[in-house]
Batch of 2 targets.
Target 1
Amino acid sequence: MISGPKYKIARRLRAPIFEKTQTQKYALREARKIKAKSKRRPAQKTEYGLQMLEKQKARLSYGISEKQFSKYVSESIAKKAVKSSQALFERLETRVDNIVYRLGLAPTRRFARQMVSHGHITCNGRKTNIPSMQIYKADVISIREGSLKTKLFNELTEKHKTYTTPKWLKFDLEKKQGTVVASPVLEEQKDLLFDLDTVLEFYSR
């Protein structure tokens, strides 16, 4: 799904989309490279190139294939009652692996995807191992009882002392379970590294 070294991909996309590229050391190194390159004549990207860049940043941020991402885009455009960018954001955010990540059960989406694939997560009491499974309002995401004592969750209580759960999710630390209480809103998400309207323009060509 992800081809090539992560540092090289993040540099090409000009966004720290992988956990390895979200460190202070990486940021300082990239800042030095950008400063050095700024002295040369900058390469001009076409409109198509900029749209492609945003699409790749979005797709790789969530760690999904081109085929699956294209499917989400088509479904979002087909929804007439909701703005396409909002519909796409909802579909991406309500994947079970992303919700596990947003609940603070995993440090990255990739790690969350592995948790789901290995059967550590349940939805409404039933084990799921499909990372792309869509979750809906009132659904309850929990850590499987047999996985609670594994080292994966040893430091969960300590980590949650400084973690802020998104408004559209509610997490019960004592029960180790989260509930979807609303739909994720695109305008409220401030940490996105891409523009979904530009992504949609790419697919509308």
Target 2
Amino acid sequence: MNAALQAKLTQLDRYAKELHGLLQRPVQTEWAEVVDRALERLVQVIVECAADAGDLWLEEHGKPLGQSAASVFQNLRDAGILNDPVYQRLREHVRARNQIVHNYDRVTGSTVRRNAERLSQDIPEIVRALMT
């Protein structure tokens, strides 16, 4: 594994620990919106970091790079690195990230938390796949 990919996976792991820690803390009512904003940002950077790591993996293995986060994950599936269920969940994470970044819809705190919890469960699987 090249140094750039290793560094990106280390960064992804650090973000995952931050997300997990934030999800485990009880949220006091007066801090709920602040926590929601922190979760939004972590969902955004984790999806982007995972896509960056995926592109680094694709490049290292001579595979086509993605033109977007969604296409990076599709190319990883096509390369046999991601199975279809993980790929489908990553597509959902990309959609959640897009809604957060582009504010397509009013994103509620409960939606953000649900997306963050799912992403937190998927990150270890993504990291393992990219370490091959």
